[in-house]
UniProtKB/TrEMBL annotation:
Top-level division of the source organism's lineage: Bacteria
Alphabetized InterPro entries for the sequence: DsrEFH-like
TM stretches of this protein: none
Full protein name: Intracellular sulfur oxidation DsrE/DsrF family protein
Residues making up the signal peptide according to the UniProt record: 1-23
Keywords for the protein's UniProt record, in alphabetical order: Signal
Keyword Signal: yes
Keyword Signal: yes
Amino acid sequence: MRITLRPLLLAGLVALPLGAAHAQSNTPAPGGAEAPAAATPVRVAIHVDENDPARMTMALNNAANIEAYYAEQGQEVEIEIVTYGPGLHMLRADTSPVADRIATMSLEYPDMVFSACENTIAGMERQSGETVSLIDEAVKVPSGAVRLIELQNEGWAYLRP
């Protein structure tokens, strides 16, 4: 009697990826036990490139809601709001319609970062002939667009409200 191994080998190759996918999922383990929580924090980059108070408020609402959701889950979260172009007004000391809320949120969520594009700052200063002042919570990054690319390359989720 001759036994062929090809069907068994093929069945094993198909089952292996399915088993691996289950092992990496967040679904309960066999027997109803919960899979362990991820050790790495959830990381979210939020993109603001419009001088629109409603859009800025939505970005801050999204950030607060994300923080609250993951805190309830017992999961650490890191959020970076990246501004450039007209969205830089969100972080300008003289024009931000949300400066007070950012000040409050930065105290409530000390790991939240508010990034301001230096390319945009330089362009605004050339155009106006005046120095652009940022709110205290802002940190400068060389390029807002490049910063978003870097964060996504590091595995951060991307959100544009």
